[in-house]
Amino acid sequence: MSNTFFQEMAEKSAVANFIFNLTTLQFEYSNQAMLALLDADADSVNINLLSRIIHPDDQPYALNALKHLTELNSNTEIHLRLTLSNKQKWLRVNVFLSQAGGLLFGNAVDVTNEIESQQVFEKYANKKNAIINILAHDLIGPLGTINMLGSSLKSTLTNGVHVNLIDSILKINKQATNLVKQLTAREFAETKDVILSKKRVNISKILCDYLEEYQNSFAHSQRSFRFSSTPNDIFINLDEPKFMQVMNNLMTNAMKFTPEDGYVALNVEENNDEVNFVLADNGIGIPADYQAILFDKFTDAGRKGLQGEPSIGLGMFVVKNIIEWHQGKVWVESNENSGTHIYFTLPKY
Questions:
Q1: What are the structural domain ranges in the chain?
Q2: If both were cysteines, with which of 39, 123, 258, 300 could 283 make a disulfide (CB 3.0 to 4.6 Å apart)?
Q3: 37-95 tens-digit pLDDT
Q4: Does the structure show a pLDDT above 80 at 299?
């Protein structure tokens, strides 16, 4: 079948197709769909155009993907933003090297609506997870108080009917407590034997919304939640559900050991090819003896919270594993009665 046929088919395709020469840094071919996607004509499609319309924050990401593509001689998929007529457009670009090398074949699809819809979905999914965490924290304390008062009341009763009623209350209360424990335990267990599904996300926006939910939910207390990001928008390639499990576990610990008049602060900072995170609180801190084993599994470092919240000894172990799955690292700095700082770093790509 002739090359003319394939060129005619490409020209009529609704999919944007292109061939890029890595030696001359010029487009060898762009079909009509590609020109329409870039809002350009055939004469203006070149490397200079791309440098102008690809979002500045996405250019290092695109170059890094190209570097890995040429080093591994394979294909890759990237998501990046274009700025056209003061409007932002998201593209999904699939590229692969020719067998002879030097030529980059690819196609591009406008996925702006898909990305924006996914961002809305993930915002409310993360909001749901934050609410579950908050409910678990708020329920454990009162349920523990009910059990203590019920047991004390039972010891003063002599009427068998009243004793049976108290026993029923204590039984129901225990079932409710176990449900909360199972909810958090199941969340921890879900990280076992998983494969990361990474994608590029605006982690600053996600975490800002997340902390805002905590602030709104604890408006009745004196506890405050602070968030800062440098710069305001930071994009990173990660498995978002698993990353949010890291945040849920860290926030659960911070809430357990920070008094009602305390604060929890999250700072995110972009540093070349890394993103640095710091979650700080002014709670009761971690004893020095526990810090060395904090990230181990089922250790004495798992303590009850200020309101009697239980620990199953897996939270920080899960945090460490997920961060290391992302080729990151995590460490802690803490002094008793002076609060705790949890630091972790993740690669951007």
A1: 3-110, 115-347
A2: 258
A3: 888 887 778 778 888 888 888 888 888 888 877 777 677 888 888 888 778 888 889 88
A4: no
User: One-letter amino acid identity for 74?
Assistant: S
270: left (phi over 0), alpha (psi -120 to 50) or beta: beta
| Contact criterion met (CB below 8 Å) for 16 and 107 | yes
Structure tokens at 20: 């890029």
Q: CATH says 3-110 is which class?
A: alpha beta
Q: What is the structure's pLDDT at 158?
A: 85
Residue 271 pLDDT exceeds 60: yes
Whether residue 308 is predicted with pLDDT greater than 70 in this model: the reply is no
- How is residue 231 annotated by DSSP? S
**Cα distance from N-terminal residue to C-terminal residue, the chain:** 41
Percent of the chain topping pLDDT 90: 20
Q: Tokens 């978002």 identify what position?
A: 240
Tell me the pLDDT tens digit for each residue of 229-240.
Answer: 999 999 999 998
Q: How far is CA 292 from CA 24, 299, 321, in A?
A: 55, 11, 16
User: Tokens 């239980």, residue?
Assistant: 310
DSSP-derived letter for residue 10 is: H
The answer, yes or no, to whether the previous bond of 259 is cis (omega within 30 of 0) is no
One DSSP character per residue, 119-174 reads HHHHHHHHHHHHHHHHHHHHHHHHHHHHHHHHHHHHTT---HHHHHHHHHHHHHHH
How many whole angstroms separate alpha carbon 115 and alpha carbon 122? 10
